[in-house]
Amino acid sequence: MGNSYAGQLRTTRFEEVLHNSIEASLRSNTVVPRPVFSQLYLEAEQLPLHSAGRVENEEEEDGSESNSPLIPYQMKPPPEGCCTTDGFCQAGRDLRLSSLVSEPLNVAPGFLLVGAKSPSAPDTLLVCAVDRRFLPDERGRNALLGFSGNCIGCGEKGFRYFTEFSNHINLKLSTQPKKQKHLKYHLYRNNQGQLVRGAAICWKGLETRGRQTVPNPSDGHAISDEHLLNPAVTAHPGLPPGSYTAGSPVGPIGQPHLADLRPPLTNGSHTPLSQNPLPHTAVLSNGPGRPTVIGTLNAGPPKKRHKGWSPESSAVKTPPASSSSSSSLTNGTKPDHAPPESLSQGSSNPHSPPGPSVTVPDQLLHTCRLQPVIFRGHGSLPQLSGKVCDVQVSSLLQSCYQNSQALPRVYQHYGPSPIQPLSVEMQILLTVYYLVQLGPDQVPLIQDLEQIFMRSWRESHLREIRQHQQPQPGLSLPQAPSTLPGLPQAQVLTPSQLPWLAQLAASSCGEGVVVQEEKVSMALGLAGTFTRLMEGRLAHTNYVVIICTAKGQETESCVVVTGKHQCRILVEGMFSPSDSLREISQQLSSGMTQELTAFCNSLGPDGDVDVLLGGAARESRSHPPPLSSSQESTGDSSPRDRQTDRATCSPKEPATDRHTDSPKDRAESHKDSCSEYRVEWREVRPIQLAVARKLLSHVCAIADSSTQNLDLGSFDRVHFLICVPPSEVTFQQTVLHLWNSGVLQQLGLEQECLSQREAEHYVVKMDQEARARIDDLIQEAHRNSNTLYIVVHDHAHWDISSGPYGASVGDSGGGLVDSLLNSLQIRDATNILTLHVTSFPFALQTQHTRISPYNEIHWPSAFNNDMDLYHEKTRYFGVSELLDSTRSGSGLPLLRYDSSFESMASVLEERFPKLHSAVIRTQVLVQHYCVALMAVSGRPGSGGRSIHKHTSVETLEIVQSLLSSAQRCPTHHGHMVLLRIPSLALAGWAHQRLAWVRQRLGLGERFEIILGNPSQALSVGQSFTERIKAWLKIQETDWVPRTYLELEALPCILILSGADPLGESLPRSLKYCDLRVISSSYLQRTSLEEELGLAAYLMRVESQGSQPLSHVPGSDLSESDRDKRRSTDNEEEERESALKSELPGLGHFPPPPPHSAPQPLRPFPDSRLLLPLPPPPSELLLGAGGESPPPVLLPRALYDIITVCDEGGLPRCTSFLPHLSVDWASSFRPLLSKMMTCTEQSLYYRQWTIPRPCHMDSSNRPAEGRTDNFHPRRLLLSGPPQVGKTGAYLQFLGILSRMLIRLMEVDIYDEEEINTSDQLEGVQYHPACAPWPIIDTLRSMPFDYTIHNPKYEDISTVYCPDYYPNTDGNPRRKEDVYLRRRTARIKLSKYAAYNTYHHCEQCHQYTGFNPGYQMYESLLHGFTFSHLLLGEEIQLYFIIPKSKQHHFSFSQPGGQLESMRLPLTSDWNPDCIKSPIFTPTTGRHEHGLFNLYHAMDGAAHLHILVVKEYEMAVYKKYWPNHIMLVLPTVFNGAGIGAAHFLIKELSYHNLGLERRHRLEGGGLPADVWPFIIVSDDSCVMWNAVDLDSHSASGPVERNVSLKQVLQHMEACPDLTQYGLCGIRKWGSRSPSQGKGGGARHEEPFSRGHLHDFLLLNVDLTQDVQYNENRFMCDDVDFTLRAHSAGLLICRFNNFSVMKKQIAIGGYRTFIIKTKITDVPTSIQPSQYICAPDSKHPFLATPAQLLLEKYLQHTSQRLFPLSARNYTHPILSVDCYLNLGPEVTVCFVSSRPHSINISTAELLFSGLLLCFCDSFVTPGFLKKFHFLKGAILCVICADRSSLRQTVVRLELEDEWRFRLSDEFQTANAKEDRPLFFLTGKHI
Questions:
Q1: Most confident of the ranges 282-291, 405-414, 764-773, 1602-1611
Q2: 95, 394, 1354, 1358 - which has most CB atoms within 10 Å?
């Protein structure tokens, strides 16, 4: 066999090589040894490899056949100043066809308009005018040499050279300019006058590769589908799957040729026959005048002057790397919106030379019963003649070869020797190896072969690739392991070696793959293959690989598919989905299926189905069915409340024989109730609200961006329109969700929408009637600029066709979405926001997408740990979980196939080769259901048990469950069975057939059969409608179900038709999902997951308990063998025996033995349900206690594909091309990774997919200088099917509307003052109209120790002799009332303070966001001062914008900061505020109300933000024009006390500096203004009591500016004698209205506690400091100490401050966590302290905070006598600490001359000494009296100080201490814990 081969096989050489290979493999663990055959045959010849990756020209300039590499073409540099933009000429005029569609063009006589393509703009056609004499005719002839053209843009004429012309129109070529390569299409004007692309220019016979849309077997045409990738069905399980398809055919410039089609010509021929028949050496033609097969094969291409020669170039034409190098289709299927394709008469190969031809035998299809498929490979394919309709020709393989040789640019010029692609010979050998490994029933997948090429190439150049390709984050680069044994990788494979190695590889599979070597021509090989087919010698052969290695020529190849199963799948896959449906309808209407129907009806010896059904019908008339309609629809069944989760059905026994239990047993078994019936599609789940909020946050992000594309502040209401696919059920389903969601009420549309029918106004089906609705919305949006319009595009992946493209091909439905939602009117409207919603966003994520990746919202994944935060009561079970069930290893998987069905369908497909497989499979499926119904019904005369063998176990199980479910439930709730039949014609036939069988069997009232037609409304029988109305308690007489959701618990078979599901949701009662009829030909990720998504299911978590999800769909039949779990073969015997025992009827079941042992329910095998005991009937519905998703039955071919994982660990379906309308950008792409998130997958598709011309995003090209063209107001919500996206976006509409209202309103704390006395005071100190207090009168007023601020409702009451608490009031809240306080919605006034989200023209300069105030214009200045309490110098930093430097003094301009300028007391300016405003803040850089521009009414003021050091950068970012005081680093973990302390002490220090400057200037130091303002960061508005206007309830408050409030207070007489001033907190209750509603006197001024907004005299309060260690109640503590020091405190009650509720940040947000982990955990307050030196988990929290929180929560145990004992308070010396709301604290000061209340008659229940200083003496403490058993608590900084304090104060004289009463805060030693000691009074 190999004697003539140069590297012939010798025995000794073979043994030596084999021995060396085995030894190398044993010694090596990592390196793959060279295969034996590679060593033998690759060392013989080392011929130079003809590079298959070079760019070849169509014609040789000099006739030379040299294979030397071409020199890259260098374009002439363009003239200076000319335009070089793609699509424009050098004069700057637009040449793009898309721009000149409607423009009038001046074309000179004799010139034609043609379209040119540029590699730099592959999807753009440039319009040119070319002399028709230089263009070929329709047969590719009669074109003159040379060129003559005019520029249609600038009008320049007379271009005589195409090189010159290509430079002028900016083609930017990398190869020699050729008119044949770049002038591609004729252009013409259509009926509308628009310039459109026409037929391709037929250069040398390279015309359009076309086929007839609906082929006619008798017309003598061959269908050539160069655009269609192989929809192969399965790959070998053992082969590591390559999951990406190759591309559509790539022409000389590498572009997909989907649109390169010509309209049919008169003679139907595009391929010219040879004008001069060549002499032949073998007569293979079948008649006179037909061309011969063999011609002058050695004739090479003639010189350029010979224009009659037109074969293809023998070398593979490699497209540039910049163009698309992969397929436009995943499965090779033509999109539905492709233009009409023409036929090629006499030849199906447009590239064929006119000379040699091959005649297709006339009786090929009849004789062989198959239609062979010829895959073009390398080189040209001979012309076909004869009955070419019996042969299919595809360029799929050829495209794969070309794409795999299109190296990216980065590899083309690497180093001195460029990286070479795979050679032609290596590609052919890899193809043979791949075909050999396929099983007998498997069909090749082009995407697998492409990945094999990629892995082989990567392995060959691994070192070079690693230097160039850095794996992207989250993307896995395939490592290209050697998957095919014996492949020569490192050696050069020569043409002479190729046939030998290919035949050796094919020998391992017997006759399955035949390699045929031809030395002369490809035509001989094809002719021989046809001959052997006719002779029957290829009956057991699936593939014939023809390799032509003619001497002196490039290697040529093709693959002829001869397997019957493979040919059928491949041929059907060449039809588009719409063509397939039309073909099916034609076969049904033409009567071609009659023989098949008769064959299926015959049951052999068991009779005929129709005859048996006739007998059953006669019996059913004499014996009524066991369950009548009246029993099912009426009776005593209790209807279910529509709003409840569960319904309890009334006691009712079905009319069946049952085991009679005792009353007790009956009560225990709950037979009389059905607790499984739920209508859950009306509930809003927490995760839906979370997604709605995510949508809202993205909308806010658009509004907050610097692009100002959305101004939310300008909208006052929301309007919306929901666009859905043209499905009536989907339309009604969306209307139902909308009506029940409450969104219409939230948007204020309830008056316009009073019924569900009127709610249809807000939902529109995307059909031709939608155009008027969209136009109305656009006009309405134009009129109402204050309304935000939301266009929701649901099921957005349904129609992504380009509008102009759909119109050009005459598709009325295609492109409608593009023409409406992508219109300029919607894009440019600033008040229209588009939300795309889809379960399959992949086709919308391309390189030219309109949606920014930042505007994508993905549904939270079930694998995300954050899912626990949503408190979901459901768990989603989708496509990935279905696939996981096949690998779980336990139980019967939910995803499976029916082997019996597949076997029967396979036999019939072979018997009826002309019928479409969908017709055959539907006939078999319906017949299975008919026979199963006959078998299960148990009717006499219906065949009985003998006919069960004519159906499958799976079908029997489905029918058994369907009929038994309603009978077992007391209210006759049942299951739904879904039959997915895409063809409307087949679905209608199946519906009629099943309904007829049901009627014949007398089962008309047992279950309903529903035909789901997208274009028709849902139709349900009247009796079943009445049953549903009773369940749902619907009273309307004309009500009918309009959605599948309303069929909950209705026993029915739903036949869902339509090419694709259109978003219809299915009820939870769906029990089985039968997809056995769906097509196996269209392998795109979207279509596959869309079909599998029908079975998506939301499981109730509470019903699962702790049972793992992987065991939910379990069964008692557990097999470890994976193959056994795939099918039902291994369980047939057991399950058939279980079925046989119950086939006679449903009404008689043996009663279960009482107290039987746990066992599975045998009479009704159910893979979804495992019950430990025979359950009561109600538990059989929906799998009580074991709820699981519906099992899915798939075609075997699809099952084998999608259950295999690729190298990335993902199912195969995720690696397919996303959609028919997109292409892979390159074959050299990484695989998707299992660890990718949804966001990373989106980025992957955005990088590696490009839209085809038929895609609506293909025209979305970025403008010059930009890399993207995103629509700024477009969002994408993606989530798995059936997960609840509709409810999420409806909730989004509601909260968006509320947010717009909230933008004009804020939540203001609206609380009544606490601890107020009901007694009316009779003394009025000041007149109600007094503008300012009288200082002497104010001093005579008593100080009110009681705290009235409602935010302190949970703290200890301060003892006051004149106050007695009201014990009958509402109970106090224990803790954290911060988030639960009462608020009121108040509209913002024009004097409000704003956060960073406020943007108006007036505020731009104030906030610093305009270009004049950039962030870098702020300077950092240090400031140092010392303080005795801190013991060291304090280093502070000021961030001072240059615009605010005039407020400060510097040693020199730009020098050292000296002080902050202060005004004089005598200064007065009506537009200026004298007091500096300090606002301490933390965690509120976005939400803090620091914009005081409007509040100050434009007045000049000094505002300083006091921030922590670690927050400095973020505050500076958001408030670049604000002065900031940065606290020292040591205060990063401090509380509000530290901020107040430093503000006050810094201000006092600065006051001293300013007084010194004043003194140096000759003035009086006392003239310097001593006041500062300390304001909370949540003060939003200020009010003043209008004394002039009175109402019935008293004076009225009005909003005033902060400027008015401060100027009034600063103008107060003798203000410098006040230590502290403030205003009251606002409340909606009138200040003059008593608590019980009666009037009471309100003093305009009072003395008491001040909060939130203070005017502080830093001079008088110099001796009273804030406690820098305090976290809580520091203002209460400071006020008490200031009053005891004799300072005058005044509250202006005629002013009030409104505080906004801000739930984010603030000083009251404390996080207590352990030092072991940073994650906050639940720690009890008792764990905040521990015994000293004990082993206790330490906390990473400041000691002072732990102490304060401990005292707040545990004071009842620490001071037991003090709880609820107001008359015996706890004595607290020199400080106030919160001991909880149950305890009263009496504050006293130990300072000399301090003001204290009289305590002579008080008995204290406790004593609190906290950091007491030397003023506290034993004599001072002896003034106070304590109850026996009173508790003492002494707090110190360390243990030694604690003991010294006890000794110094002689506490042991009156207090008893124990060693166990000493504690410390739970801090580590390095964190300086606090210590305290407790004792009991003796």
A1: 1602-1611
A2: 394
